[in-house]
Design goal:
Jelly Rolls; about 45% helix; alpha+beta; Arc Repressor Mutant, subunit A; about 220 residues; 4-stranded antiparallel beta sheet; 2 domains
Length: about 220
């Protein structure tokens, strides 16, 4: 199973520049942990002392309003990393991370990771690039929420998810795993009913094909 950890570490952008022996060292620094669907891995406001690399499953990064309204900031899967920001700024966790499919993560504690970065400065540069990408994505999301209609926000969100992986089926065709209407609504700041109507409109106009387990976008 260590081979799987090493493979996922080597494919993670923040660690991808490391040599094989350095990846093996990193793979021995952390621990594996599993969570069932519905579990909470991180709670907003708690102290941040570890980085999490997803080995399997799926999680969502989410905030809750005063009346319990859910705002999904992102959905993450195998190979994605979360929990890194609190390690660098010393601030409490900024959001909740909840399991939406049984998940397993590789956890590296903050002190161990920071000491490792001192020896491998290339990882620090990768982290800067990683955090810069997060900021750009946040800027795009804020702009999309402010300037686009519901159909535009749905398309923007689905394309952002597609761009995070290799989802091209052919020229102008993108396929991603199907999300629930509730998840999409939480990601774009709308309601399930409005999202359902918008998806039906987009499907009727040929912009999206809704399959049993996939969304196929025609762009």
């Amino acid at each position: 199973m260590d081979d799987k950890i090493e493979s996922i570490i080597s494919n993670a952008r923040i660690f991808g520049s490391l040599a094989g022996k350095d990846i093996k060292t990193l793979a021995k620094m952390g621990e594996r942990r599993q969570w069932l669907k519905g579990s909470q891995i991180i709670s907003e406001g708690e102290e941040g002392d570890a980085l999490y690399l997803i080995l399997s499953g799926k999680v969502k990064v989410v905030l809750y309003g005063e009346e319990g309204k859910e705002i999904v900031l992102s959905i993450m899967k195998e190979g994605d990393v979360f929990g890194e920001m609190a390690l660098f700024d010393g601030e409490p966790r900024s959001a909740n991370v909840e399991v939406i499919e049984d998940a397993e993560c590789f956890i590296i504690h903050g002190d161990d990771l920071l000491n490792y970065i001192k020896i491998h400065p290339a990882v620090a540069l990768n982290f800067l690039a990683h955090l810069s990408k997060r900021l750009r994505e946040a800027d795009k999301k804020i702009g999309g929420l402010a300037l686009l209609d519901v159909c535009g926000r749905i398309a923007h969100t689905l394309l952002s998810i597609a761009n995070a992986g290799s989802n091209m089926q052919g020229t102008g065709v993108i396929s991603i795993e199907r999300l629930t209407h509730e998840d999409i609504a939480a990601m774009i700041g709308s309601s399930r009913e409005v999202v359902s109507r918008a998806l039906k409109k987009m499907a009727n106009e040929g912009y999206i094909k809704i399959e049993k387990k996939r969304f196929v976008l025609h762009i």
